[in-house]
Every structure is written in C-alpha cells, then in structure tokens.
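B., you asked whether I could sanity-check this one before it goes into the benchmark set. Here's the sequence:
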Amino acid sequence: MKCPKCNGSGVVADQKEVGRKMRSLRVKQGIGLRAMARCMGISHGHLWQLESGRRSWSLTHTNKIIETCAVWFSMKKTIDQTP
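And here's what the prediction gave me:
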C-alpha cells in the first residue's frame, strides 16, 4: 500500500514544494547551484537533492539559503550602485 502523503515516492509533496520555492529564490537572486552550495557548506549534489525534493529541508538548510540570498542581494545592490 502506498503512503498517502508521498504517493509511494518516499518524498512528501510539501518537501518538493519547499524545494521548488527555495530554488526559485536562488534563481531570482541569480545565484548558481554550485555557488549556493559552496556558501551553504554543502555539496552541489546535496543542494540539488534538496531542491528536487529528494531530501528533506532542515531549519539549518532553510536559514543558510535565506542568509546567502540576503547577503548576495546586498552585495549585488552595492555593486550595481557603484559608479
């Protein structure tokens, strides 16, 4: 019998949605997968698995990606405003 939450895939739909949203946040900031993974202190393969919903996001992962995007945005804004 299949798990009603994961439909037999082993991945809960909410995990996939979180992954999609986190990927969208990263892409909107113009941050590459490898660069984000490096900033987060994880492998790019691990980040890909998180974004694709194959692994669960922890609070630590979520905080790291938000912090990295905020720093990236702040740096980009400063560079863009430099004459």
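One thing to flag: The two ends are 63 Å apart (CA to CA). Otherwise nothing jumped out at me.
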